[in-house]
Design goal:
single chain, mainly beta, Lipocalin
């Protein structure tokens, strides 16, 4: 065997060794999440003196709530890993919400609101190298928005409307890029980052203010998510670190006739959601 062949075999052995060192890990984290939710709708019919045909009404709600995250990466072989990530709001923050008629530059409604966010992401990771991965899989989101203590114009009508809840569930096909600098909890410092794009394949939105069984199912829209993490091994098998994440969700909305009164439309406005989280994680890896 000549030196060139010996060098090639040694290189292949080294690549195989590096790949086999990347075993799985699990994690748990807590964070503070700032959520910004916006709705925008242009009315085609006059509703009142405050809203006439052609007026555009915008709502924005900003809240900060604690969330937890958990998950793991499971090694399948030297070419593939499988990751699972979970997120949920621990305690929603109640905030004030204002509905602004941007055409007339006036507030047409005030109310309180809170929001619960949860999600599950399952991704198959193809390792171009142990550090650089292409990922693809499914992402499920379940969001719940509650509104109450309504003030419409100068009239407080909370006792009439009570609590209105909107529930949105989305299943997305997702793909993107994932970076792992080294094996978790086995080296001094480790970095992780990813960017993932999601496209809804199933959408269901229900609102308790509508009479009967009303379901909005327009799948138009998209998501993209980014995460960056830096951690340090405190002892073999355990790592602590800090992370930040950004998520953007856009939905094109939908309107359908009210089954109780077809002359009236039930509207799910165009909406955007931004989630920004900063938190801490503990990671453990006792795989050999």
């Amino acid at each position: 065997m000549n030196k060139k062949h010996m060098l090639s075999l040694a290189s292949l052995a080294l690549i195989s060794l590096n790949a086999s060192e990347f075993n799985g890990y699990s994690y748990f984290g807590v964070a503070s999440m700032k959520s910004t939710y916006q709705e925008l709708y242009t009315f085609t019919k006059t509703q009142s003196d405050d809203i006439v045909a052609g007026d555009s009404v915008k709502m924005e709600s900003i809240a900060t709530s604690p969330v937890y995250t958990s998950g793991s990466i499971i090694k399948i072989n030297d070419y593939f890993d499988f990751s699972m990530d979970f997120l949920s709001t621990l305690k929603p923050d109640a905030v004030d919400e204002s509905w602004i008629n941007e055409t007339q530059n006036r507030i047409v409604q005030n109310n309180n609101s809170d929001a619960m966010y949860s999600g599950m992401v399952f991704l198959l990771q193809y390792k171009i190298t142990p550090k650089h991965r292409l990922v693809g899989g499914l992402d499920y989101r379940l969001n719940s928005f509650k509104r109450y203590n309504f003030e419409i114009g100068s009239t407080t009508s909370g006792s009439v409307y009570g609590v209105i809840e909107e529930r949105s569930s989305t299943l997305m096909g997702s793909f993107g890029y994932w970076f792992e600098s080294t094996t978790a909890a086995k080296n001094d410092t480790r970095f992780m980052a990813n960017i993932i794009y999601g496209k809804p394949v199933y959408q269901s939105v229900q609102n308790t203010s509508a009479s009967g069984e009303i379901n909005m199912d327009n799948e138009s829209g998209y998501n993209y998510d980014m995460t960056a993490y830096a951690g340090y091994t405190i002892f073999d098998g355990v790592e602590i670190g800090a992370y930040t994440s950004y998520s953007f969700m856009k939905r094109d909305g939908q309107k359908i006739p009210n089954p109780q009164d077809p002359s009236q439309m039930i509207v799910w406005p165009k909406n955007e959601t931004e989630l920004v989280s900063v938190g801490l994680k503990i990671i453990w890896n006792f795989n050999q």
